[in-house]
Amino acid sequence: MKRILALGGVAAGLLASAAIAAPAHADSVPATNLANTNTAAKQVAAFWFGQAKANLVNATPYTAETTVSAKHVSTGGASADDKAGVVGSSGDQKAATGTLKNVNLPKTTGKVFFIGADHKPHWCSATSVQGQYKNLVATAGHCVYDTKSNAATLDKWVFIPGYYEGKTPWGIYVGKTAYTHYDYSVYEDGDRDYAFVTVYNGVIPTEGGTSGGKYESKLYDSKWDAYKAKKLLASDKTTALSKLDVVEVNKLSRFGKDTAVSVADFQAWNKGKNLTDPNGKWAWFTSASAPVSIDKSEYKSWTKDSYVSQDGTTLFWRVRKPGTQHDYLYFKRTFSAKLLKGYQVVGAKLSIGLKDVGTLGSNVGGQGLAYNQKIGTGIFEFGYPSGSHPDGNYAFSGKTQKWAYGKTFKAAAPSMKAEELVGIKSSFTGEGSIGSAWLYRYSNAKRLGYLNGVTIAVSDTDGNNRIDTNVSPYFDGETLAVYKTAAANWSGKIV
């Protein structure tokens, strides 16, 4: 589903001021683990680096978006809840004036990759933001939180600044913890569709490629219990296992229970061995009963020297009685084995040699944050637009970073619970542009500015089947509170 908004009315129509909202407190900012252990983070990195980066290369723009109807209204809308302010970037700058003919693209912009609700790899746009530990990424909330299947967060989440066709120039940064506004986490409020994510230090692969192994769970008595365990493993952020499945188990083990087995199974475990041998040396954890002498009347064949009972569990045979030509001795025996029987969860686990390349901010810098800015402010938008216009024209490939410039105006989209959005004129098409950074006072020399929005939807406002507007939540004091909570949390290294 593509989040294409139909914004009614004049694109530049402004909304009157809304009531001032109380800012969020740090203890009310929801925090959700993405990969909360080093082991999990290593597995996530291995997933994207492994198999010649096939999962990165094959990822597609995220399409779990919503088609909604939106409109401009004459009252209400986005407004400041306090004085305007900024939080410094990694290199503060003077205000840029107007548009620039040649824009130096920021190193902070990149793509976030994750597994979507369809269990396939996808990506959105995102940017590095300055924080206390230089480990912060900002993007759209629905590029972190799985609003389609209502899972907590999207799986195997990583940020790659400067990504291009499998290249990771500054490494991969595995997401650790995601922070968002309470109203988005609980109510999926479109006015708060943004997220700040702390990431571990970046990593690159060392020589030697990937390796891995098979994961096997404990044995479960019922298939239902095994599937329940599989579901828990799939949602466990400490394992990052893949290709999970439930299989029926019937195997030899010293921990198994002595169980009667068929002659066929016993022979399979003892290939090439004579099952009538009274002193046979059987495979580990298998055993045969001592041959039992039986009367001729119990033997059911006149022509065969051996046969298996109809139920498959007993071997009958005969041997010529010494010194005779037509008389036989008759025997039977049964077989057993120590068997583990039940159901097991199996899967794949990857490992890869990784090298630490330092913090995100140390490598690419971090944008500042601007909040409570007046409507009509000039904004540069940076992202990876992809997908077609409504008329089918593909203006952007999503492979390279693009930019747009516009002045903010008020917008609303009631059907997505968004009454206080801001928009800019932009031809960015929706799928790849979601999460694109809106930068206030962008310095072309320093390639830094202040994050003042993230693209959450696009719109054809004049009905000509061409995208002409992008929209974002309005960044206010409550956005600042979410940012501050996230920016104060350390991530550390994974290797």
TrEMBL record:
Signal peptide: 1-26
InterPro entries the UniProt entry points to: Peptidase_S1_PA, Peptidase_S1_PA_chymotrypsin
Keywords, in A-Z order: Signal
UniProt name for this protein: Serine protease
